[in-house]
Amino acid sequence: MALREIIVLPDPRLRLKSEPVKAVDAELRALVDDMFETMYAAPGIGLAAIQIGVPRRIVTMDLAREGEPKEPRVFINPEVLSSSDETSTYEEGCLSIPEYYEEVERPKAVKVRYMDLDGKTHEIESDGLLATCLQHEIDHTNGVLFIDYISKLKRDMVVKRFKKAAKRGEPIKPLAEDDKPSHHIG
């Protein structure tokens, strides 16, 4: 296992559409191990392979709360099959857009098809935090970021701030005093 660098906005790779996984092999399993190590160290509750610069349709996730046993999950080639008309709003953050959080409205429930590390296909119906995280991470595999769901004005301000920081080689500073929300998605 190896800790990987998480790429950060404005890195153009975050806008790439990831390629489907054709087979589960030792290389893929090693990548998943690295993703979990990176996600836990960040710390985050979800990570898409593209966030470590690998444009493959792989998502790792663990929604266990602090102090609870870990519940690592892997979603290979995840796709949303259906979503509810009812929506919910959640304050999202992203490991690739550090220290920025915003309320995002998404379908409250989704049905997702994915493959596991044994190459078996599954379908899962989810709601709540799991549904939000699945949508957030699947968006990553399609080159979509959570800031794409906020107003153009706010999005442009965030992108500009990250471009300036990248140009100067500076770390990103929190926009608000509350820089430790309960969940940092992926």
What's this model, at a glance?
With 186 residues, this protein is an alpha+beta fold. The chain is built from three helices and seven strands; from the N terminus they run αβββββββαα.
- pLDDT < 50 runs, ≥5 residues: 174-183
**How would you classify the helix and strand content by structural class?**
alpha+beta
Shape: globular
Helical coverage, percent range: 25-40%
- Rg over alpha carbons: 16 Å
So what's the CATH class? Answer: Alpha Beta
Instruction: Tell me, rounded to a whole number, the average pLDDT.
Output: 92
CATH topology: Peptide Deformylase
- How many distinct folded domains? 1
Strand adjacency order, main sheet? 1-2-3-6-7
Task: Supply the key terms.
five-stranded antiparallel beta sheet; 186 residues; 25% helix; 3 helices; alpha+beta; two-stranded antiparallel sheet; Peptide Deformylase; single chain
